[in-house]
């Protein structure tokens, strides 16, 4: 059995501040998310993965490999890739 606080330990969103001072929950991609999870949730990121040389978003490894692992395996800076992926989903909104 998981402790009561377990459901709060893994949050899928981050809190961002908007101009009027109110807080708004906005989802963001992080480097610990799996490649498959990101592409399923935000299909518009597939092009970004391709542009950055990660053509593996459709393969079996994408279900288990997170963005950081995939980026490092291809010699890509994971932080810059995550930034590009978040830019892609931001443009979609």
Description:
This protein is an alpha+beta fold. The chain has a domain at 31-92: Orthogonal Bundle (SP0561-like). Helices cover 42% and strands 11% of the residues. It contains five helices and two strands. It has a two-stranded antiparallel sheet with strand order 1-2. A hairpin with a 5-residue loop joins β1 and β2 (23-27). α4 crosses α5 (78-92). It is globular and about 30 Å long. The termini are far apart.
In a few lines, what is going on in this structure?
By secondary structure, this protein is of the alpha+beta class. The protein has helices spanning 6-9, 35-41, 46-51, 67-73, 78-92, and strands at 13-17, 23-27.
CATH superfamily of the domain at 31-92: SP0561-like
Total number of helices? 5
Oligomeric state of this protein: single chain
Mind telling me the C-alpha Rg?
15 Å
Low-confidence stretches: 1-25
User: Any idea of the CATH class of the domain at 31-92?
Assistant: Mainly Alpha
The CATH topology of the domain at 31-92 comes to: SP0561-like
Kindly report how far apart the N and C termini lie. Answer: 38 Å
Question: Strand fraction band?
Answer: 5-15%
The count of β-strands is: 2
CATH architecture call of the domain at 31-92 = Orthogonal Bundle
Judging from the principal axes of the Cα atoms, what is the shape? globular
Strand order of the largest sheet: 1-2
> Percent of residues in helical segments?
40-55%
Q: Biggest β-sheet: count, sense, barrel? A: 2 strands, antiparallel
Which structural category fits the helices and strands? Answer: alpha+beta
Order of helices and strands: HEEHHHH
Q: Name the average pLDDT.
A: 77
């Amino acid at each position: 059995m998981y402790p009561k606080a377990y459901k709060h330990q893994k949050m899928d969103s981050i809190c961002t501040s908007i101009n009027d001072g109110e807080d708004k929950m906005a989802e963001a991609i992080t480097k610990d998310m799996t490649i498959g999870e990101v592409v399923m949730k935000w299909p518009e990121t597939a092009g970004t993965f391709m542009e950055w040389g990660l053509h593996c978003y459709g393969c079996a490894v994408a279900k288990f490999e997170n963005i950081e692992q995939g980026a490092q395996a291809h010699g890509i800076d994971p932080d810059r890739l995550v930034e590009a992926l978040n830019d892609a989903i931001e443009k979609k909104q």
